[in-house]
Amino acid sequence: MTTTLDRSAVQSSNNVWQMAQSQLDDVARLIGLNADVHAYLREPKRVLEVSIPVRMDTGAFQMFRGWRVQHNMSRGPAKGGIRFHPDVSLDEIKALAMWMTWKCALANIPFGGAKGGVICNPKAMSMQELEHLTRRFTSEISIIIGPEKDIPAPDVYTTPQIMAWIMDTFSMQHGYSIPGVVTGKPISIGGSLGRDKATARGCMFVVDEAMRVLDLPIEGARVAVQGFGNAGLHAAALMSAAGYRIVAASDSQGGVANPNGLDVRGLISHKTETGSVTGFSGGERISNKELLECDCDVLVPAALEKVITAENAARIKAKIVAEAANGPTLPEADRILFDRGIMVLPDILANAGGVTVSYFEWVQDLQENFWEESEINERLKKKMVRSFHETRAEAERYKVDLRHGAYAVAVGRVAEATSVRGLYP
Ligand code: GLU
Q: Does residue 225 share a domain with residue 161?
């Protein structure tokens, strides 16, 4: 028998959770947050750790470890994706759950924050193994999820198909179809039009707004995209269709760059066929490190945490950093970028399009009434633009960067809900 259980011990030194807590501490000081509410918001409400036994294709039995963390539910049911990744850790999931609380509050959707994760390598698993893993994980966390309780969604390396298995498993346990238990589902079982591209579309809407504020022309503006998964790939496609020029793109294998603009359609076909952007003939090969520092106007980190650090922040050439990923910028790097006058559109603002259309999906499921894609995109745009300006107003009020501005709005909303509800018992 093989086991993946002991990996989390190695990764408990991951500091992303401390980073999330220290971001909250900073904002608590800034807005004069009540000390009791601050202490309350520093910790997750619930952490469920599960062991997931899976029969692999070889007939061998393998144990996996997973979690569902609910950070806060003061404003409504918990909401957040599920990540399948070999390096996922409890600290990371706790941080991501806390960020979901702030993200939902900033978008002003009636959800709290949650996140789930399983230590596994989906790229090395068959569809059947992935299905078994997903179904057993769903069954293990089913005691705390549900349309009124906690609603999972896709995240790194999880797909609409995986959401369909979650929906089916939960529904089979209850004896009837419950589409509202999960978002990011296929359209055929209650998914929403526009959800697949929503993170990228929302990100583009805030970049558009930032370009207007900075008085920069969109036509021909050079964009570099780090990460070519759901967020990065669609961001490249949508932004290139809107007149931006995609000059570099990368994934976990490496990247490609072309200062005259990459043929994004060709690049997407190449990625779909080969599994990577590397080896694409329409550009020069570059590393992920080079991509982050390349000559561009807009840098879109769309992969994992902690890629913009104190070490590389001084060399970033972009005028705008749009965080399609969660947690790509370390706090030390934030300070450097702010001092250099680079506008960072923080994750809880820039990638909130995904969870916003997840909210629309949940509303449609509960009402059993589905909307046109144009209506969804229109509603998304309104929310993103409003959040951008609310963030900016708070940043100006406190003379801080947009991350602190966004946190001031979000933490303020959650604190208000927490205080008005009072402490039970
Ligand atoms: N995983 C996405 C995020 O980090 C979407 C979450 C959701 O739709 O619930 O925002």
A: no
